[in-house]
Structure formats: structure tokens, C-alpha cells
Amino acid sequence: MKVISKQRNSRMCFICGMDNPIGLKAQFYNMEDGSVKTMFQYKEEYQSFPQRVHGGLTATMLDELGLRALWAKNGEDAFGVTMSMEVKYRKPVPYDQDLIGTGIVEKETSKFATMKTEIRDKSGVLLANAKVVYIKFEPEQIAQGVDPHEEMCYLIEDQVKEI
Fold first, then answer.
1. Where are the alpha helices (DSSP H) in the chain?
2. Dmax of the chain from CA atoms?
3. pLDDT tens across the length of the chain (163 residues)
4. Where are the domains of the chain?
5. C-alpha angle with apex 92: 86 to 93, nearest 5 degrees?
């Protein structure tokens, strides 16, 4: 599927923070169908049981994909926080392997947004998915005195044209 544009990365977010020494440093792409996608790998340090990623870290990526899907639809000035998330773990999520995360807005009102998110392996096998509900807030309602544009300061250009 064709990439339309690239989303920004933050400084310290565990998922997308470029300055976070233990983070995933995931890159996110707005797709032609209105979804967002990322290609990433978990590290062995993120395991719960050998050969599999901790379920909480799987859920963390599914949650991030929810906000990123909202950005894919409404732009990076759309903010909110997770109100609820229903995760389904389908298969063990491996570390040190290429994975693809996808998120898309399913339903939206003036105050809420519901997104569908998922993680698949490189061959397309569904590993985990979630229904994520966000309540929309202005950035100052989430963290007072924080400029989100200052935190989301990286736009890393690359040559990814399709995912």
C-alpha cells in the first residue's frame, strides 16, 4: 500500500522517542487508505517468557497506533488520552523479527474516537489486535505547560514509499 506522508517522532516516548535509549524508535506512515502503519522490531530485552514479547509492551504499541490513526485522519494537532482498550492476543509476539502495526479510525464524534489497531508478522499473520477508545483533549488538558510541538520535534525523512 502507498505511503502518503510521514508522521513526527517525539523525543522521549517509549514507542516513538528518538532520544529514549530503551525505546523502539518506531516510525509511522500515513497510508493511502487513511490508516497509519509502522514497521518495527521488539528487542529481546522486551520479553516476558523466552521467544515472546511481554503482553504489556504489545498493548503499548496497539495504544500508540490508536493515537497515530487519529493523526492520520485529523492531523498531528488532534490529541486525546486512552479511555479504554480491549486487547486480543492471537499468537505470541516475537522479538528480533520484523513486525507491521496498523491503526485506523473506526468511529469518531466531537469528544471521542474509536480506533482499530493490530500487529502482524511480516507474512501477514495477525498476532494481536485492539479496539482503542480515546477521549479528545487539548494538549494543555493532558499536560500543563508542555508544548506538544516541542516534544514531537523529529520529522525523519526516509525513502519508504510502500508498506
1. 55-74, 139-142, 148-151
2. 44
3. 999 999 999 999 999 999 999 999 999 999 999 999 999 999 999 999 999 999 999 999 999 999 999 999 999 888 889 999 999 999 999 999 999 999 999 999 999 999 999 999 999 999 999 999 999 987 666 666 666 667 788 889 899 999 9
4. 3-151
5. 80
Q: Give the pairing of strands 99-108 and 29-31.
A: unpaired
Contact 4, 160 (CB under 8 A): no
37 membership: H or E segment, kind and range: strand 36-40
Instruction: Name the 3-class secondary structure at 44.
Output: helix
DSSP string for 130-160 = EEEEEEE--HHHHSTT--HHHHS-B------
* 60: its cell numbers: 503499548
**CATH architecture assignment, domain 3-151:** Roll (3.10)
